[in-house]
Fold each of these.
Amino acid sequence: MFSGIPAVLAYTIEDLSGIGVEKDFVIGPAKKEVWLNPGESTTINLNVTNRLGSEMSFRIGVEDFVGSRDPNQVTVFLGEEKGPYSLKDYLKPEITEFTLKHGQRMVLPIEISIPKDAEAGGLYGAVMVSTFSPATESEARAEEIKGGVQLASQLASLFLVRVKGEVKEEGFLKTLATDKSNYQKGPISFSLLYENTGDVHLIPYGIIEIKNILGRKVDELEITPYFAMPDSVRLKEIEWDKGFLFGKYTALASLNRGYQNIIDQKSVTFWVLPWKILLAGFGGLFLIIWLLYWIATHLEIKRRTTPPGPLKI
């Protein structure tokens, strides 16, 4: 199953119970943040679990990734190319191919070794895990060449390494927005756009306070920590679903930039007017008023038209 494997290895394959057939495989961690000094090394265990329902072979690769200035694209994988903050030469998986039966999990050590002359800053690479079938791999490659067909499934585990030293930490919250200014009902989707202009990744976080037209706070949403790559913009979306809403609301985002405890604030105002409910309410109110008017006018007419009783002497 393995070729060219050293005599002593630290990887393990575990048999798990209760693993259903999900027709996929999962890896973890999806993202790992590491701080190291120049010349330091560490090892991170990567878990790969087979839930495909059958035995499958896996291949491990390493490539760099960068951020994007397209808000809809968090990361860009570079394949064989080196990125401006390249980590791929410093990521060493213990083995690069293995096979798992359904319900088995590979615990694979990934060594990160930073050279002694490394400059302070961020280094970014990904361990790519893909499936392949050795028996049909040559046919699959032929199909890819002819038709550009991607036959292998692939997942990535991101490694964000911070080499300690003097760096440029610089970022800010650009905008807070909703997708429209008027709603009939929730949920309300908030979009925060954060720009990182420094040379290391940042981890912004914070809260969104929501107040009604009277200025009273009606809710508070957490902006969970997320990463923003250097020289990129990162979109964070948060949904607010509070049940019945009516009137004007103002949302205030307080975002910690992820360094030096600097807080950026942005606000946005929106209306929630459930016109169908309001229309039904006004219609019902009009019907009640009309009914009362009809009853009152017909009773008055009846009084006027009722003949007087016999005159008593």
Amino acid sequence: MSLFGGPMIPDSGGPMMPVRSLSTSYVGHVATGCRVPQSLNAPTAAQMMSRSRHRMAASTPTIRIGIPHWFIANTNSSAIEETVAAGAALFTGSLEYPAGTFTQLTWDGQIEPFLVPIGTFFSDPVTAPPQGAFFYIRIWRDTTVVGGGATLPCMKWPNGVDTANGEACTYGATGIADQTMGGTITNTTNGVMFSPIAIIGTTNQPSIGVVGDSRAFGLGDTFTGTSGGIGEIERAVNSNYAVMNLGVSGDQGNSFLFSNALRFSALRFCSHLICQYGINDIVTGGDSLATVQNALKNVWSYWRDPTKVFQTTLPPYTTSTDSWATLVNQTPNAAESVRVAVNDWIRTIPSGLHGFFEVANQVENSQDGGKWQVNGSAFFYTPDGVHENSTSNIAIANSGCFQLGAFTLP
């Protein structure tokens, strides 16, 4: 049990694996729209009110909502590190389903418990929406009642939150009302959002955990349609399965190995893992083929069940003199030969890996061709030569390269 009320996920002791021994059901992640906080809002913004959107991917009688009081910090030029938020925060929450109907969340029976600098706090069970239904989680947090000075972790979405489908987040130094039980939340900025990291219940359906960098996170993508998915993996699988997207901008496989206990303590509620690491190790880290192979194999080995681990191939990384309108004006990164070698190695399905998803071929001019596909228009598949845009992520999702039948339970 957590301090000041509310069951919590342990935040130390190393990776904690999902339950896989049960052939019929397990306590697992059951919804979409759950992501990891990747920044702190300004220190003067001591209050925050968020409304995040989710879809029930499984049928389960009750769910519990996991609220992280930690975030991913780029602490120096070479490491992305999990960091527990400084200081305590008062918070309240609700499940909104259907829209405009609210169920108060409690933590050990308390409506207003404190988040303390420990880890992730799970609510008491609450009746789950039906499978396939969209619903909202509202969270209000405040540090002013505990003396101020605490920092609030938040989700950073440079390309916006899903405002078209009702998501919103507002924050400030004071005056942010608690709207967990009603009211229209005014969205302060499209660059900040906060959501649960996990929504758990008893399920017999697969649930997908994602680790990776900004391509998995969805940088360069924007919310389109009603599915709520973003990024090269989440878009492809969240219409069928619960997804916990823990992609982090700038992250590398070796950085994840350095700091991962809080993410793995949440990932234990997922039955399968998709790893997308590699490109930042190659381009930013300057790592050799052997070093990247070692990092990826170590990430896979943390899962301890190779029949449930998948890796994506890595799309191109190029510059362009005509905004990626043509092939001839694209120049692959200097480490292109390493990217090609890593992809060719992934396609052999190395030991420790159950399978791979051929993402690169959906956006590359040819297998190992080294350039983004083009159609003569500027920014057709990429906004910057590094990330996919909505067009390319939709193409990846529609290609069928993510074989959804590969996710099976024992």
Amino acid sequence: MNDTVISVEHLSKSFRLGEMQRGHTLADAINGLLRRKGVEEAPKKNAEQQTLWALKDVSFTVNRGEVLGIIGRNGAGKSTLLKILSRIVSPTEGRAVIEGRVGALLEVGTGFSGELTGRENILLSGTILGMSQEEIRDKMDEIIDFSGIERFIDTPVKRYSSGMYTRLAFAVAAHLEPEILIVDEVLAVGDVEFQRKCLGKMNAMTKGGRTVLFVSHNMGAVSELCSHALLLQRGQVHAMGETAQIVEEYARLQRGGEQGVSFDDDESLPCSITAASVTDTKDNAASTFDIADEVVLNIHYKVRLPLEGLQVVLVLLRNMNEVFCSFDTDALDSLPTREPGSYRAQCRLPGMFLKAGNYSVRLAIGTPDRLMAEIESALTFDVEELSQNTYNKGYRKERIGHIISRGRWSTERFG
């Protein structure tokens, strides 16, 4: 028996600029027809400039029982690929052959009817997948229990938070017996405990011979769950192979091979991160610091439209996949509304704060209601115990926990 369940052959997908943000409802389709009519009546001399190839000549295969991680920067084509495999959009060129029933968990808001309750949406989803009412009801209690939202299961899902929606959507997608489960970045919406629960469920599914395609910016989750990974860059396959090798290649591309690095500037976004660097207090590029040294992280970004509440977020990971802490430019920022222009945000990490180890930096920028850009492993640096007289004395070397903290102590004598 042929073990190949997904075969993608020379797959390409093009969009006219402005189409990529459209939805997939009837109203969206009607609006799209009106827009296209206007485009067709306009001069076509700029037609080539109005076309964006989200995917270009992508080919790969996935075997039964395999967990394939799909990684890459924002705009690399990951979500477009999953939508084609889920039959939500059609390819412009090439084809994708899929053997088996597909359960897809894409962006929050896709797949459920907001007017129906959670229970009714479970029944609807199962019916769409071709299951009988009896089969769905047999799974109902298990789905509700896994989702953890029993109290709200008979409430219309339009009243759900994004986290509740994601919990139910994953529970439905994973329990209605798909041969192939497709999961996009939406798990980032849930809490850490639920993410672990989902990873465990996907692991169990693959042991039962089911196939999983998993898109995530969390390289720790990709490394833990996936046996192989596919790295997309600018809509094309950059590399495919064992997960550890592909994750390392992705980190290398993100770093640009140096500590001062520039990033692709997507001019279609209201704002974007353009460069980043790690330096010492004298603005010298550095990659290794003593535990007593201050580490300076510089993030350059560009704003194209006035944006209220714009934040730059910095997530620090230790030893590549252990989330250590995060920082952001919050509401106390002196410029809560950003006017168009180029900016630099700077975050200073004090000495005697980071324990020895290898650190990587994940960057993101956006407003409270929209993530504009995210860059995994944007920077890396090492912290070493070089100062023998400031820290490395006796038991202090073995302090428990993630950070070094002397605290503020005082001692009073009574009697």
